[in-house]
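Entry 14. Ran structure prediction on the chain below.
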Amino acid sequence: MRSLANMLPDNETIHRRIPLNAVFTPSDPPRPPWQSFRPRDPNSKNPSDAGDVDGISVDRAQLRTAQETSRGHNGKECLVVALQIIDVRNTKDKNEAMGMDVVAKPTTDNLAHAVIPQLNTTEYKTNKSQLTEWAEGLASKCIRVFP
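Output, structure tokens:
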């Protein structure tokens, strides 16, 4: 059951960082690769980086600009795509809503931080085909790309 305290409204926009070298599918707006929504594995070279165990990270657009999101926590420049939360919740898999959500999870250095908890490292390892479909669905829902 979702916590009402952390639920975000359907009409809110979120930002997701995309590597600068990502190859976008030509469309309007350009479509990022589905791998941009795949959970990260833990970083064996950096023990403090546990990967996306709690879901992939996004930023709430009303609390952080696309430019701020593009810099991220490590200062490495990235592209940013925007999605509506309603589209995350309504992304279809075989014509049924997949039940994804966006949950606020602010950190001390990023009050806009949120996660899509269903797209986490453990689920990806155990249910790769399902999560790949979800990631493909999200990639198709991007409403804007920021340089």
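The beta strands are 13-18, 56-60, 79-84, 92-93, 96-97, 103-104, 113-116, 144-146. Will compare against last week's run tomorrow.
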